[in-house]
Design a protein that fits this description.
The complex is a heterodimer. Chain A is an alpha/beta fold. Chain A has a 7-stranded parallel beta sheet, sandwiched between helices. Chain A has a 5-stranded parallel beta sheet with strand order 13-12-14-15-16. In chain A, α3 packs across α4 and α5 packs parallel to α8. In chain B, the strands form 2 sheets. Chain B has a 9-stranded mixed beta sheet, sandwiched between helices. A two-stranded antiparallel sheet of chain B has the order 2-3. Chain B has one domain: Rossmann fold (3-Layer(aba) Sandwich), CATH 3.40.50. The chains are: A alpha/beta, B alpha/beta. The complex binds flavin-adenine dinucleotide and adenosine monophosphate.
Chain lengths: 309, 249
């Protein structure tokens, strides 16, 4: 038994979600190899080699991998697959895009978005927007997984794995990469921030969203998040959405501001360590998961909170 | 240009799930079932392409029990032209769904498959990627904008950290994200018309695809409950509690 994990990176730095995927599978008593496929990404391979629990880094450095297209990444994983019992990636938009291709071509089901490793074949995963948790056993010979990063701690540093080069070069994909538009991002990354301040429909406009939540987040050193309603209305960028179909976060402190708490939103934040909800409706479902609920008008309570900190 | 749109019948997004006390699954009997919300977005996108004169035919497909015919009628009422029901009482896993869809693609020869990125029951987010891999067609997942022009698709995708744009030749597989469009409501006359549109039924067993599940669900449980919280009376009390009780500030 040995494990292959696909690293996520931007050709210069490793995404922390990969370190969490490594930690998640470290409980299985098997060597872990990490594939770093990219272009001019030697530094990422070197960084990956320092993760505790990683036994070997495989470096596939070629322009065909430069933009993280699913097709060539799937092809190289498939090429390496015969040597591994488990092939995995973090369940980020990157991992979700690539891994099902590998599963399909190996003729196995993917176990998506696991939150717990029970044994080498058995895993827990949420379904129905987290309304239920399934324990599933994978019965095929090979196991393809995506791993919910927020459910696991990051692997420690201090490892010293060797880096080996992968010579396989997949055919050029039919797909061409055109452009990437980074969302505005000041402050810490939403996926890994210790504190998250999220705003909902109640914020009323992009201006008010920024004016009310910006200073609070800044004082707390927090990342900003949003409900779907706030994103749909254009108050916040798409990739700030927290929930079933957005990001899943589990910070030490999550502050929900004017968010009612639909199950699809709770799916993305209810495993936060401490949850604060501020909403004027005492019956809002968000209060059912909040450790501290404040029934108040956000336009009064939030500036007061910012000042009090 | 022909578009194939797979639509899944799922527990309605507004119904709270109840886990069976014996751990055997979730309760679905007598609860409202609907078209998977992402699939409604896929149907809407296909119909818009037809209205724009880019597509000529929209075929909706569902794999499921006889009741999935209702889901297909909803797609027809929105504006799909024809529908195919692949009948089975087994809960078919994404891999088998992808294989069935591949057979249908080979039979129908569409130029484009548009489907949901995720079914809101299994939350698997894998069928579209699998279908793309099995067909050897380019994939554009989590689309928030689609432009079809001259046998090419230009697709903007929602990814962590922003948006990404890809270009690919057709045929291709596209999966929808929430902000691609807002699905229309079917008008009453269109609901009536949909009853007369062709809906072909195929037995899933007849397609030569193994439907046997690969994942054994050992148990289905309620998510762990959070310990009950408290209401605070003021901002000052909140700050005090976060400092001294929760110790997060
Ligand atoms: C398939 C699908 C996927 C989805 N995925 C997601 C997802 O990933 N993430 C997500 O968030 N949602 C998701 N949703 C949407 C979800 O169902 C809710 O519609 C959404 O979360 C509501 O956002 P909201 O709480 O901001 O808005 P609302 O539900 O409208 O709540 C606004 C809240 O603000 C309060 N309020 C208003 N004014 C004030 C004020 N001045 N002071 C204090 N409080 C005030 C109100 O009392 C209310 O509680 C999804 C839905 C579907 C169907
Ligand atoms: N039984 C089914 N019938 C038709 N389409 C399906 C079925 N299962 C999945 N799909 C399609 O695949 C998408 C992704 O589903 P999943 O991979 O299960 O999250 C859905 O949004 C549908 O478009």
């Amino acid at each position: 038994m040995s494990i292959l994990i696909l690293a996520e990176h931007d050709n210069s730095a490793l995404n922390p979600a990969t370190a969490k995927a490594v930690a998640a599978l470290s409980s299985l008593d098997a060597p872990i190899h990490v594939l770093v496929a990219g272009h001019d990404c030697r530094s990422v391979a070197d960084e990956t080699a320092t993760l505790a629990g990683v036994d070997k880094v495989l470096l596939a450095d070629n322009p065909v991998f430069a933009n993280g297209l699913a097709e060539p990444l799937g092809d190289v994983l498939l090429e390496l697959a015969p040597d591994y019992s488990h092939i995995a990636a973090a369940a980020t938009s990157f991992g979700k895009n690539v891994m099902p291709r590998v599963a399909a071509l190996l003729d196995v089901m993917q176990v998506s978005d696991i939150t717990k490793v029970v044994s080498d074949t058995t895993f827990e995963r949420p379904v129905y927007a987290g309304g239920a948790v399934q324990t599933v056993e994978a019965t095929a010979e090979k196991i393809v997984l995506t791993i919910r990063a927020s459910a696991f701690d990051e692997a420690q540093r201090g490892g010293n794995a060797g880096v080996e080069t992968v010579s396989f070069v997949p055919a050029a994909p039919k797909t061409t990469f055109v452009s990437r538009e980074a969302a505005r991002s000041e402050g810490p990354d939403l996926a890994t921030a210790k504190i998250v301040v999220s705003g909902g429909r109640a914020l009323g406009s992009a201006e008010q969203f920024n004016a009310l939540l910006g200073p609070l987040a800044e004082k707390l050193g927090a990342a900003l998040g949003a409900s779907r309603a706030a994103v749909d209305a254009g108050y916040a960028p798409n990739d700030w959405q927290v929930g079933q179909t957005g990001k899943v976060v589990a910070p030490d402190l999550y502050i929900a501001v004017g968010i009612s708490g639909a199950i699809q939103h709770l799916a993305g934040m209810k495993n936060s360590k401490v949850i604060v909800a501020i909403d004027k409706d005492p019956d809002a479902p968000i209060f059912s998961v909040a450790d501290y609920g404040l029934v108040a008008d956000i336009f009064e309570a939030v500036p007061e909170l910012t000042k009090a900190l | 240009m022909k578009i194939l749109v797979p639509v899944k019948r799922v527990l309605d997004a507004n119904v709270a799930v109840r886990v069976r006390p014996d751990g055997s699954g979730v309760e679905l009997a007598n609860l409202k079932m609907s078209m998977n919300p992402f699939d409604e977005i896929a149907v809407e996108e296909a119909i818009k392409l037809k209205e724009a004169g880019i597509a000529s035919e929209v075929i909706a497909v569902s794999i499921g029990p006889v009741q999935a015919a209702d889901t297909l009628r909803s797609a027809l009422a929105m504006g799909a032209d024809t529908a195919i029901l692949v009948k089975t009482d087994i809960a078919v896993e994404p891999l088998a769904v992808a294989k069935i869809l591949k057979v249908l693609v080979e039979r129908q020869s569409p130029d484009l498959v548009i489907m949901g990125k995720q079914a809101i029951d299994d939350d698997a987010n894998q069928t579209a990627q699998m279908l793309s891999a099995l067909l050897g067609w380019p994939q554009a997942m989590f689309a928030s904008q689609v432009t079809i022009d001259g046998g090419k698709a230009t697709v903007t995708r929602e990814v962590d950290g922003g948006l990404e744009t890809l270009e690919m030749p057709l045929p291709a597989v596209i999966s929808t994200d929430l902000r691609l469009n807002t699905p229309r409501y079917a008008s009453l006359p269109n609901v009536m018309k949909a009853k007369k549109k062709p809906l072909e039924e195929i037995e899933a067993d007849s397609l030569g695809v193994s439907l046997a599940p690969q994942l054994k669900v050992l148990n289905t449980a309620e998510p762990p409950a959070r310990k009950p919280g408290s209401t605070v009376g003021s901002v000052a009390e909140l700050v005090e509690k976060l400092k001294t009780e929760a110790r997060v500030l």
